[in-house]
């Protein structure tokens, strides 16, 4: 399922800057943001707090902005949060056009169960892909159904949604591997070492 364009989100142009101005904006349940891209000068904006927070629950949210009467599409590129309170402090937005392709990180969603007695070790939580701005997948499903220990899945093995492609640097990335639980492996190794030491002990006793 692809991220859908949201209903219009009213934004206002911001003319005051600095930490003090940003604190006042957040105190009014609003969020400071900047919109950039397509060679235009960055626009400093103020977004409605509650509506924006709901939309930012999804990765790569695509916002349909009404900037004082001007309609713009914007892709959320970065969200800065307070590390303790997790309050949204600032949002970076990328100006996009319908049909335009963008490079984004999409979450990996592992489905299925591997062979009994094995575990899945996920090496990367996202895949870097190129997709149309209005058709960015919410996640990429990777099935591990029935995979045995020693199996692995690379980014090139993943079935991507139509119109979505891997970016070049992702072609060598390993998404996950299927392994035996480490405790069982260590026990098997220990038993092997004991068996190897036993004949030596008998020989020395003679």
From TrEMBL:
Region of interest (Disordered), residue spans: 179-206
Keywords: Ribonucleoprotein, Ribosomal protein, RNA-binding, rRNA-binding
One GO cellular component term noted in the UniProt record for this chain: ribosome
Pfam family, one: Ribosomal_L25p
Domain Large ribosomal subunit protein bL25 beta: 102-182
Domain annotation Large ribosomal subunit protein bL25 L25: ranges: 9-93
Keyword RNA-binding belongs to the record: yes
InterPro entries: Rbsml_bL25/Gln-tRNA_synth_N, Ribosomal_bL25/Gln-tRNA_synth, Ribosomal_bL25_b-dom, Ribosomal_bL25_C, Ribosomal_bL25_long, Ribosomal_L25_dom, Ribosomal_uL5_bac-type
Family (UniProt): Belongs to the bacterial ribosomal protein bL25 family. CTC subfamily.
Protein name: Large ribosomal subunit protein bL25
UniProt gene name: rplY
